[in-house]
Amino acid sequence: MNPTRLSIVFACLILLLQAGDSFGATGTRLDKKSSNPTELANRRYQKGLKQADQADELLQQALMSDNKKNQDKLKKKALAKYGKAISLYQRALAVRPSMPDAQHNLIVAMIRSHQYAEAIAMLESSNARKTDKLAYEVEALLGLGQLDQAAHKYSDLSRMDSAGAERLLQTLNRFASSNWFPESPRISTWLEIRRDSASGSSR
């Protein structure tokens, strides 16, 4: 073989071997920063938090807006951000399942993005405080239209943390008044009954 051509062949082989070191068995490029599972999970979790914070801000803007068109636009953007946060939290947990904060924030993002059944399923194995679990269950059950079950959970929450139950009512009322829930009119009636009951018991 011509010496020049032989040199070219060897040079190509070297380049191929170097390229192979940068790719995994599936042919996807390896992330050099991902060699440590804990660090990778934390990075994904932090990115998820950023998306969720942006979603929360958009949601607050939607709740304060008096313009329905603008409100709907902000809600759509918020849902998209929550969706990205959910994906990042799930990817973090896939690498490091023992991340209570990631699990907690995943549940919150699922509830905010109307993934109520998925959130309830996660709550069953969650290590969250009992009062937090009850509050999330109330909101998720309301979102699913299971008002009677939500009432039972709310009663439990009221007995354990009356101040927390009152804060939950205020939050849910803001959501319902802006039609954030799929069944906001029914939920508004449910909330009114809870408020009247609370007012009567405090007299």
Average pLDDT metric? 84
Query: Main sheet?
Result: none
Radius of gyration: 25 Å
Order of helices and strands: HHHHHHHHH
- Count of DSSP-assigned helices: 9
End-to-end Cα distance, whole Å, is 101 Å
The overall strand count is 0
Q: Please tell me what the overall shape is.
A: globular
Strand content: under 5%
Counting structural domains, the number is 2
Structural class: mainly alpha
Structural account:
With 203 residues, the protein is mostly helical. It is built from nine helices and no strands. The chain has helices at 3-21, 37-64, 68-95, 100-112, 116-123, 130-143, 147-160, 162-177, 184-201. α2 (37-64) packs antiparallel against α3 (68-95) and α4 packs antiparallel against α5 (116-123). The longest helix has 28 residues, at 37-64. The N and C termini lie far apart (101 Å).
List keywords for this structure.
single chain, 203 residues, mainly alpha, 2 domains
What are the SSEs and their pairings?
Blueprint: H1 3-21, H2 37-64, H3 68-95, H4 100-112, H5 116-123, H6 130-143, H7 147-160, H8 162-177, H9 184-201
Helix pairs in contact: 2-3, 3-4, 4-5, 5-6, 6-7, 7-8, 8-9
Write a brief structural summary.
The protein is mostly helical and 203 residues long.
